[in-house]
Amino acid sequence: MLLSLLLLIPFLGALALILWPGSPSSARLRDVSIVLLVMQCLASFALLLPFDAADAGLQLVEQARWVRAIGLDYALALDGLSLPLVLMNGVLCLVAAISSRTIENRPRVYFALLLVISGAVNGAFLAQNLLLFFLFYELELIPLWLLIAVWGGANRAYAATKFLIVTAVSGVLILGAFLGIAFVTGTMDFSLRPILAGELGMTTQLVLMGALLIGFGIKIPLFPFHTWLPDAHTEASTPVSVLLAGVLLKLGTYGLLRFCLGLFPDAWQVAAPWLAGWAAISVLYGSLAAIAQSDMKRMVAYSSVGHMGYVLLAAAAATPLGLMGALFQMVSHGLISGVLFLVVGVVYAQTGTRDLNVLRGLLNPQRGLPLTGSLMIIGVMASAGIPGMAGFISEFLIFRGSLQPFPLATLLSMVGSGLTAVYFLLLVNRAFFGRLAIAPGEVVNPRILNRVALREQAPAIALSLGVLVLGLAPELLSNLSEAATTGLSLITGDMS
Amino acid sequence: MTVGASSAATVAAAQRFQAAMPDMGASLLATQAMAAPGELLNLSLNASAVLPEAAVLLAMIATLLVDLAGEKVATRWVPPICYIGLGSSLVLLALQWNAPLEPSFLGAFLADNLAVAFRAVIALSTLLSLLISWRYAEKSGTPVGEYAAILLAATLGAMLLCGATDLVSVFISLETLSVASYLLSGYMKRDARSSEAALKYLLVGSAAAAVFLYGSSLLYGLSGSTSLDTIGLALQSSTTPLAALALVFVLATVAFKIAAVPFHQWTPDVYEGSPTPVVAFLSVGSKAAGFALALRILVGCFGAFDDQWKLLFTVLAVLSMTLGNVVALAQTSMKRMLAYSSIGQAGFVMIGMVCGTEDGFAAMVLYMAAYLFMNLGAFACIILFSIRTGSDRISDYAGLYQKDPLITLGLSLCLLSLGGIPPMLGFFGKIYLFFAGWANHQYLLVVVGLVTSVISIYYYISVIKMMVVKEPQEASDVVKAYPDVNWSLMGMQPLRVALIGCVAITAVGGILSNPLFQWANTAVAGTPLLQQAIALSSLKGLG
Amino acid sequence: MSDFLATLPSLQAYLLVAAMLFCIGVWGLINSRNAVRVLMSIELMLNAVNINLMAFSSFVDGDLIRGQVFAVFVITVAAAEAAVGLAILLSLYRNRVTVDMEQFNLLRW
User: Fold this and answer.
1) Hey, is the C-beta of B481 within 8 angstroms of any chain C C-beta?
2) pTM of the model as a whole
């Protein structure tokens, strides 16, 4: 029942917002949705109580028949893989709602869509039926499209449509692969279970897994399917960017672990070297492209491409340590990119630009944005993998776990990790250090840079605290998921 | 004389077959062959099978009579008469559901569950089309009584077509539907476009009917009978080239009726030129009748040519899905866009038919029912918009959300459902079709279906983008001058009821779709014709 | 019955005539610019069907005359169809003052 609550609160909440009588103000609607999301967040943390971390299997299973004719069951369950992601979804959706201060255009629809997305993501992480997962996966598509298309920047229509079409293609590939899985195994059932050796020809397995890989690869996004992401991020508003990077990309990596690796352990082993190579290319490409950006938000977006590549690398290695790292990376990337996007959003709101060629000296203690700058530096350090932050733990685990099976790919990815430091140093150096002197004709007017209230920075501060806590006490997370990730790696281990 | 001899042999073979496997048609045929005219009259006509049609017929006659009393009386009384007629027809249909099967009119009509299901879809589509018509008819200054009578006549034909099991009754009901449809599409007499649409429809439709007749005359010659059962048996024992020719002729007509590419050229013209409520009926009711005809003739009659017609249908389905959805991208008129989208949708339904499995047929029935609600919901919104603004250009919808949230929400939900986005009804229907197709190894069809679904999402979304994303300052002139919403005018309340009903079912029906799935499965289970085909194809699959 | 049949040409002859008539109808359907001629071509096609039905009825069906009944239905419906067709044509003529098929091009994508 607890799991259904995670769906009911946001969906019914969205309905309530739509049907809310009268014409409530934006602030009122925001308060209501914050209350709802706090409830959802509490409900997801309440999962920690009944959750048994030592058990690698599914827990809190909820099963009901839905549409028998197409093998669609309402089957929800929790394990160490989905729990951290559900928790992160709860936190980041709350953060997104809190930071949606300036929504004056159709706030009712905005907050309702936010709630729908949060419910759909919960559903996708908890679904134990392929078709149910697909349903939730597609459900998040239209709300996010609207969030970008209506509340986005100048070029939003193009970015939103690109996002929509590319993601729809990803959905179609995934659906095709799911249909294939259901029928080729002959069960006519969409329940999740690994496809054992001998049950299917290797070619069939590879084809099905390839479709899933490309489908989720679009969502993650991996090079060369990433082109929608920078556009979508650049045009989306700050809260939507936080959601997109923090939560929705994780649907892709989660799918990678749960469906590609979890269902096709045999084929995965065959493809693993190639996947590791692909991951390295993706990491290097993301990092190099980030260096070339002059738009702060685009740079952060490209860094996502790179950092999500680590997850593929770890998944390819499929060692217990690497998979733990992958999960860690998913969570820490969610938190870190949350911080980064929030800070970029504040800078943009205060200066009216995100152009690194224009911004300078924002860290100025009197006239600049010192707190924002500090938060940015924390986020950047975490992202670059400085010890003591969550990013370090995840990168260390991933590289440690994948060095042995794929030394070359891991080394290349380490280079990419080094490049992270390079482009983020560039960012901090250009935008935050130096003098806040403004050359004639430049757009930034130092008088606009009002002190940003601590209250408004609270979400970013909370997320950075989370990054620090996870960095200093990684066992908080690893204890939850160790059994699950080990179990996942064992599937492949058995086969070899 | 060779044809005669061979067909005599086939009849003999047919009778042997029937003796071995007695069914309802056999005894009837035997009596019919030997009976003197006096004895024939003693046979039970079992006319109660067409009671639902009788209700529609009575409503039609009553409408015509009321219409004689003048415009005012007609406007007052025609709507309730139609509601009562169609409502009682639906109730009578519900009573026929799962009833013991008995062929009526000496084997010319059979009220099996398939017929009941499709007739219900048709009656419902007429009811909804009528609900959304009154205001439109009033606004365009056309007499309501005649319009309703012709629409009821078309319904009558379409409903009879669903259960017709004899070439003569198929032809008569097909022509009742067609002739009434020609009249309907040309109903706006003063509009040159409407007349042009009607003429094009009439010429192409009559040619199609002539081709169908030529094919059926060949079938009659091959089997010496006009009963579809007997023809099917006769064809099984002699698969001559002439029978293949007959198949091509009949298939062309079926494809014309369901507007499959390349027999679709009339669709966009007729949809654009005809009055919008008529298009609503044509796109659902007429199409459902076409699919019922396809099932009756191709599955029931051409079982011996299973591979051939399935191959042809596969080609037609691939072409329909591809062309329908791709050309829809380029449309600027809402009606024309929906016309091409309906071609694509027909392609999806054909997947179920090609499968020939239990799930395939059930998916067809289910998708037709889902299509009924989502398409008519969309049409209700379009009609409402065109009543208020007089436009159906897609670009005129820009910024509509601010002026008319109801249309925006309703049209958005219906279009998303047509595009197969969860959790709408269309998503479940489409998944079921793909599920059935994949289970039957129709990989090409499913892959084309999946790819074209993405294309279709693009153009459905672009309409939603117009309505929802455009800000007030980007709104079209039509929307800027949008009139105040007034629901008290004559015919507006029915329109609202239809709109909200369709949209609600489209939006919630998916989540609660289990009864609908069961309904579709029962429709297939209670139809001997389909059960035979399923048994045959599963035998073939084993062998 | 068989005496009667013996006086007739073979079934193939009838079928051939019907097929030719049908082809002429199709040719007229495709090539006519005048809408009335198109309607007439369709009538030709229907008549070809009638000949087919009558021939089959005599040669194949024996005592039952289902083909003839069918033909009667076809004739009736064809009359109705022609009536509706001419009515529509008339209303179009009032609007456009032409029956030239090439001129009917208001609807085009």
Assistant:
1) no
2) 0.90
